Recover the amino acids of this structure.
């Protein structure tokens, strides 16, 4: 019996080391092709590139651990970002006296509402979350395009000046998105691994009946997780508007796939029951390294989505095979 | 406190109906503090309904009557309510979270009540280790639950229930997947609980368990209490006739003798079954046996002896590395289930939930699922043919309700099992392999299943039968071949008088040549 215990531990260890080795190998391959790949600027661009989808993916990781899904995170971010920008900028593209920070709250609020609607449809309407949130994806995405009339909303930057803050001089503001990601990762990790709630979430994803017979109110926990996932997506949208100073058309586009790829690469089970927020960080780094690396060695960026999809498929097949063996 | 001091649990005048069906009528269950109270009855007798009321799954208000815990009336509307008044129920189905550790599973109810508290992995393991040691429960707290056996998971569920320090612990058929030693471990735990004044309600079908463990039993039949019997008055025959309303002698049908010169239908010689997780390695030691026309051949052994693997290998589930299988003298190779069916094999799984039935479909669709070609014409379903083919088995197996359109999910376990049997018989197999055909099945359904198997063999077919219940195996089989730890250990003839010999062989205490 003790043998099995050490096997579990060493398997965990083996899995993490394998992931890190894989990441280093990928970086190495790109660096061999183009040595300029490893320099401060490109590393920073790798980090910046994964920040927004990363913020949205943290609570999504926990939701997936509970056995549910949210495909609408990208569209949610787009709508939340749009509404946040409209609120702060005031519609006509002229800065008024609303604080740019209030955009964050608007983003979180919009995201939470979308998350709660998802929860309602899934848990009260008994619709599989995969389907329900695809519908939400279309709704939110269309609203995000329709509301500003298909035009960008510039002028967010001006609102900092109106608030007496010099955006370009502020280290904190320039790196705000990275700070938010780090905070989210830390919070997500603590929630999942260091609280009773995290164990309960894993138990729901592993065996809903086990959770229920243990007195867990499964629907309540899942509602919280859908709301948190929505809030995280909304925050990601607002943070991106804050970072770029404007809403842009492709905001949130393809996040669902990137996020899910990063999540499964990080060792979270798409079947629920097992999740890792620290693993997500690794998954994000790997996905973004591949994306940036392909640009650095001159591969057509359209291949990027092909590779993302391929990684998701391969990871799922490997996970299914491993489940079969044990 | 002595046993006579009072009742830990009283369920007074409980009645519950589903539509027009009365599930319970005026049931009184009184369980004395600190006793082990047996609750027996066939499936459909109302045990599960009664326990669902007690666990809060059927909330207060959906039934009439009163629940009193420790002298205080309570109203239960959820599992949480039941837990908070000290009722812990271990359901029959295995409900553990595979991806968590043993310790996490045991602490799950506690963690679910205080979700905001920090989680300290090593602290939890230490706490659970101490608890497991106190009750001598043979589990390792740090182990991942997915690596436990089914029996260990059962023990884990009981440990989780005990950890909540219940006033009343309800065990619903806890031994259905356990082997001899594991049952002993479980009984030891229940006795420890008794010494700690914790009351246990023990639901079971198995008479020997009642007699070994229980202080008092209540017998339910058709939603009513038949009687309550004190330990001193336990008499197996009487208990069983109270339960089924008829005599035990009728349970097993009389087996016809097969003649030694009946033709050999199936001959297995030195078969080597491949291990699916280690390619090229054998799963069991090579084995040989013969099965004659009209014969019921039992395969005896404990869980883990390899008996299920033997029949599954004949049904195309495993790669065959060596040896030979002959059907009616012709050597055959079986690489897939469909090939095996075409050679005349039929297999009934021990796990009807996972492998046996389509739960969301009706009885008729389940019965005809394997003969879809025979009831379709150019891909169109012939509804009339579907009905008439299904009706034959609905009637001969006496499935209740006698309604072809009833969904499987609304049937009792015993009736579901009858459908599983019918689904295989309808394909008209020459060699039927049955793996635990009466697991979790009430006595009346058992009798139907026994009769069906016997008739089927009398019609000139052959049966391979696996059962953990040795009396059943011996009474039903002409011969029993016995395996222990993946190895053939011997053969004995059928008949209830050989139970002790079978047990000795199954646990590996008797070698073939010493017999």
């Amino acid at each position: 019996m003790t043998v099995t215990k050490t096997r579990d531990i060493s398997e965990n260890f083996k899995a993490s080391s394998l992931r890190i080795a894989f990441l280093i190998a990928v970086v190495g391959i790109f660096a061999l092709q183009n040595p300029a790949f490893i320099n401060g600027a490109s590393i920073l661009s790798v980090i910046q590139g994964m920040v927004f989808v990363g913020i949205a993916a943290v609570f999504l990781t926990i939701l997936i651990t509970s056995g549910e899904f949210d495909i609408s995170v990208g569209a949610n971010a787009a709508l939340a970002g749009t509404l946040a920008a409209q609120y702060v900028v005031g519609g006509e593209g002229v800065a008024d006296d609303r604080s740019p920070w209030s955009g964050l709250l608007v983003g979180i609020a919009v995201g939470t509402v979308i998350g709660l609607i998802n929860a309602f449809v899934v848990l009260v309407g008994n619709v599989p979350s995969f389907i329900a949130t695809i519908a939400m994806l279309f709704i939110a995405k269309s609203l995000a395009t329709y509301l500003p009339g298909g035009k960008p909303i510039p002028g967010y930057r001006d609102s900092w000046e109106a608030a007496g803050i010099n955006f370009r001089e502020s280290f904190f503001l320039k790196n705000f998105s990275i700070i938010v990601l780090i905070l989210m990762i830390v919070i997500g990790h603590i929630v999942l691994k260091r609280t009773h709630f995290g164990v309960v979430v894993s138990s729901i994803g592993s065996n809903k009946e086990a959770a229920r017979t243990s007195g867990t109110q499964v629907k309540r926990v899942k509602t919280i997780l859908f709301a948190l996932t929505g809030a995280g997506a909304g925050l990601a949208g607002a943070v991106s508007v804050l970072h770029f100073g404007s809403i842009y058309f492709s905001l949130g586009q393809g996040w669902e796939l990137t996020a899910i790829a990063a999540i499964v690469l990080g060792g979270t089970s798409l079947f629920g029951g097992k999740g890792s927020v620290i693993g997500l960080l690794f998954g994000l780094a790997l996905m973004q390294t591949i994306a940036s690396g392909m640009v650095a060695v001159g591969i057509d960026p359209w291949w990027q989505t092909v590779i993302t999809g391929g990684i998701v498929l391969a990871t799922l097949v490997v996970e299914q095979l491993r489940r079969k063996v044990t | 406190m002595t046993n006579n001091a009072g009742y830990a649990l009283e369920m007074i005048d409980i009645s519950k109906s589903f539509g027009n069906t009365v599930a319970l009528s005026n049931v009184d269950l009184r369980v004395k503090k600190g006793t082990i109270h047996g609750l027996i009855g066939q499936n459909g007798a109302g045990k599960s309904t009664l326990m669902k009321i007690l666990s809060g799954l059927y909330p207060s208000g959906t039934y009439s009557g009163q629940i009193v815990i420790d002298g205080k009336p309570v109203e239960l509307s959820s599992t949480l309510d039941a837990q908070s008044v000290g009722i812990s129920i271990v359901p029959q189905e295995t409900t553990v979270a595979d991806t968590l550790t043993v310790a996490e599973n045991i602490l799950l109810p506690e963690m679910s009540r205080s979700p905001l508290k920090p989680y300290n992995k090593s602290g939890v393991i230490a706490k659970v280790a101490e608890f497991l040691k106190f009750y001598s429960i043979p589990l390792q707290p740090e182990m991942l639950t997915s690596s436990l056996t089914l029996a260990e998971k059962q023990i884990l569920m009981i440990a989780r229930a005990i950890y909540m320090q219940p006033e009343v612990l309800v065990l619903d058929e806890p031994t259905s997947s356990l082997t001899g030693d594991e049952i002993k471990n479980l009984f030891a735990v229940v006795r420890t609980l008794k010494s700690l004044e914790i009351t246990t309600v023990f639901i079971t079908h198995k008479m020997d368990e009642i007699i070994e463990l229980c202080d008092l039993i209540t017998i339910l039949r058709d939603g009513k209490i038949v009687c309550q019997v004190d330990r001193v008055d336990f008499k197996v025959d009487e208990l069983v006739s109270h339960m089924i309303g008829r005599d035990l002698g009728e349970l097993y049908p009389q087996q016809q003798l097969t003649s030694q010169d009946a033709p050999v239908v199936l001959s297995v010689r030195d078969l080597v079954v491949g291990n699916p997780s280690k390619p090229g390695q054998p799963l069991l030691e090579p084995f040989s046996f013969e099965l004659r026309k009209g014969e019921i051949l039992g395969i005896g052994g404990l869980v883990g002896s390899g008996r299920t693997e033997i029949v599954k290998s004949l049904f195309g589930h495993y790669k065959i590395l060596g040896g030979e299988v002959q059907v009616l003298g012709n050597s055959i190779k079986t690489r897939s289930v469909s090939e095996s069916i075409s050679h005349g094999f039929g297999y009934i799984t021990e796990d009807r939930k996972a492998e046996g039935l389509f739960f969301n479909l009706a009885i008729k669709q389940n019965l005809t699922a394997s003969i879809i070609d025979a009831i379709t014409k150019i891909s169109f379903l012939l509804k009339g043919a579907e009905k008439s083919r299904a009706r034959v088995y609905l009637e001969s197996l006496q499935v209740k309700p006698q309604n072809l359109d009833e969904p499987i999910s609304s049937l009792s376990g015993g009736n579901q099992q009858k459908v599983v049997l019918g689904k295989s018989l309808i394909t008209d197999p020459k060699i039927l392999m049955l793996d635990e055909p009466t697991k979790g099945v009430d006595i009346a359904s058992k009798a139907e299943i026994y009769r069906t198997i016997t008739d089927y063999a009398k019609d000139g077919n052959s049966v391979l039968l696996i059962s953990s219940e040795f009396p059943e195996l011996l009474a039903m089989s002409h011969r029993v071949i016995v395996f222990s730890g993946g190895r053939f250990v011997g053969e004995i003839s059928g008949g209830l008088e050989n139970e002790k010999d079978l047990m000795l062989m199954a646990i590996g205490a008797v070698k073939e040549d010493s017999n």
Summary: Chain B has a mean pLDDT of 84.
